[in-house]
Amino acid sequence: MPTGLLWSAGALALVGEAVVHVEQYFALFHDIRWIGPLFLANAAACALAIAGLTRRGTRDLAALAGVAISAFALTGLVVSYGQGLFGWQEGGFRPIIQLTVLFELAAVVLLSAALAAAASSRARLSAG
Q1: pLDDT-derived band of residue 79, with 50, 70 and 90 as boundaries?
Q2: Cα–Cα distance between 40 and 22 in angstroms, integer?
Q3: Phi-psi category of residue 55: left, alpha or beta, with phi > 0 → left and psi -120 to 50 → alpha
Q4: Is the dihedral of CA 28, 32, 38, 44 positive or negative?
């Protein structure tokens, strides 16, 4: 997959992640201490990473941030199924959670692949 397509697909995965987190904030988590604000913080962080992905000079840092944001969100979800996260314990694997996991995993994989492809391309250019 071309590097440009990886950047774009990773950005779209972050858009999906942000949209789901905002929707779930208003649908369910707006009154839940800590968890509600974390959902909005995730969406804001995704928006910043997406903005960074639009500029060549900030693309690598933004992609790394996108990977971290999505990985932390996945980790928080996993913890919420076990011991709970800030008093919230998730139950069931609702379709919206499945969609969220899909977006978060896609962001991690696509942005990691974009970073690797960009590094490889830069290495080839400097060697040639």
Answers
A1: confident
A2: 6
A3: beta
A4: positive
